[in-house]
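Incident log, support desk, overnight shift.

02:14 A customer reports that sequence design results differ from what the structure should imply. Their input is reproduced verbatim below. On-call engineer (initials T.W.) acknowledged and began investigating.
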């Protein structure tokens, strides 16, 4: 993980673990993504989408449809590591 995205990745995982199934709407996530977007000349939502993809590919989070979700809600979920927090 790049140093540039460390804080954003942590904010996304925190938002998802708090039950925010769409971290794009989290104000802290958006503010950090906007800061990165301004320095890299990208669109804010592209930055967030890119980090969601990177976190999904690394196995930190996954997207579940209504039929697969434990609470019946579509969205992003943190992957359980099986270790107590």
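02:41 Re-run completed on a clean worker. Output:
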């Amino acid at each position: 993980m790049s140093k540039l995205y460390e804080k954003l990745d942590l904010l996304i995982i925190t938002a998802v673990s708090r039950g925010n199934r769409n971290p794009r709407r989290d104000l802290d996530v958006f503010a950090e993504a906007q800061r990165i977007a301004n320095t890299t000349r990208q669109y804010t939502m592209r930055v967030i989408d890119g980090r969601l993809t990177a976190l999904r590919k690394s196995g930190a989070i996954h997207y579940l449809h209504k039929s697969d979700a434990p609470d019946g809600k579509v969205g992003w979920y943190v992957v359980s590591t099986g270790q107590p927090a």
